[in-house]
Amino acid sequence: MRKFILIFSTVLFTGLSAQKKGKDYSDILKSKNIYEINAFLRDAHPDDPRRSVLKPRVMEMMKEYIKNAHPADQKVKQMQEWLAMLKRRPSTKITFDEMNAIIRQKQIAKYKAELAAKQPTVAYTPSNPSNAIVTGAEAASTAAIPDAEAEEFNMLMTVSPVEHKNKTVKILNSLFDNDPMSKECIVLIENKSDCNIIMRMEGIGTIKYRLPIPARSDNSIVVQKGDYLFTSIVCGAQYASQKTIQKPVMVSLGTSASK
């Protein structure tokens, strides 16, 4: 499978240099902070002599954290992953190719699970009837998508078992497809916002696609290769971007359409 092109710098460049991020590591040898030392190892020059001191130190700190952590501590898994990486390499920095491979494998696992379950594994928020009274968390949830799009979102999310199976098989085939001559490829939309959204993709002529993406979730679609205008409303903010789709693409949207 060829590389996923990660569109946004927040996804693509998590390993930018310390100089570009403006970090100051002048006192890093005094640090007792796992995250700060871990960031230094990702950012520092490979020949920086401080690495020989800080790498074993942070590994011992991670081991100690794991040893004393509460069983339900969500950070333990991350610490274990970092520790495993540091045993094999100079830092926990993930390369572009590695990130693409991780995303691909997660998508394959997700759609295999959906195919086995014969139904989507994600939930969505139905539109709220105009006369319903909700408060607190319910109000935030039911307002997750503009009223004008709520019915359309729910319709797009509601598919028959046969339609769901066909779509899932098509996406899995695209994920496994290595043919550069293929006329189609997959688009993955990651919705990091608290709002349900619809991504609209308009190509040349009558080529158009609509993809619903629940809040804090993702969704995929197989499209014809070509030039597209991507538009959406993310928590009330307009999002628009032109994209040329010739390879598998991942679009990551946050809480703001400016991302």
Q: Outline, from the CA principal axes?
A: elongated
Say how many strands there are.
8
CATH evolutionary superfamily of the largest domain: Immunoglobulins
- By CATH reckoning, the class of the largest domain would read Mainly Beta
CATH architecture of the largest domain: Sandwich
The whole-angstrom Rg is 22 Å
**In which range does the helix fraction lie?**
40-55%
Mean pLDDT over all positions: 77
How many structural domains in the coordinates? Answer: 2
- List low-confidence stretches: 1-21, 126-144
Summarize the helix and strand pattern as letters: EHHHHHHHHHEEEEEEE
- The count of helical stretches stands at 9
Structural class: alpha/beta
InterPro entries: DUF6759
Organism: Chryseobacterium camelliae
Protein name: DUF6759 domain-containing protein
Domain DUF6759: 162-255
Give the SSE map.
Layout lengths: L4 E2 L2 H4 L5 H4 L12 H10 L7 H18 L6 H14 L7 H22 L18 H7 L4 H11 L3 H16 L7 E8 L5 E6 L5 E6 L3 E8 L1 E9 L2 E9 L3 E5 L6
Parallel strand pairs: 1-8, 2-8
Antiparallel strand pairs: 2-5, 3-4, 3-6, 6-7
Helix pairs in contact: 3-4, 4-5, 6-9
Compact description:
With 259 residues, this protein is of the alpha/beta class. The protein has helices at residues 9-12, 18-21, 34-43, 51-68, 75-88, 96-117, 136-142, 147-157, 161-176; strands at 5-6, 184-191, 197-202, 208-213, 217-224, 226-234, 237-245, 249-253.
Written description of the protein model:
The chain is elongated, with a radius of gyration of 22 Å. A hairpin with a 5-residue loop joins strand 3 and strand 4. The protein is 41% helix and 20% strand. The protein has two domains: 13-94, no CATH class; 98-253, Immunoglobulins (Immunoglobulin-like, Sandwich), CATH 2.60.40.10. Helix 3 (34-43) runs antiparallel to helix 4 (51-68) and helix 4 runs antiparallel to helix 5 (75-88). It has nine helices and eight strands. The protein is an alpha/beta fold. 22% of the residues are buried.
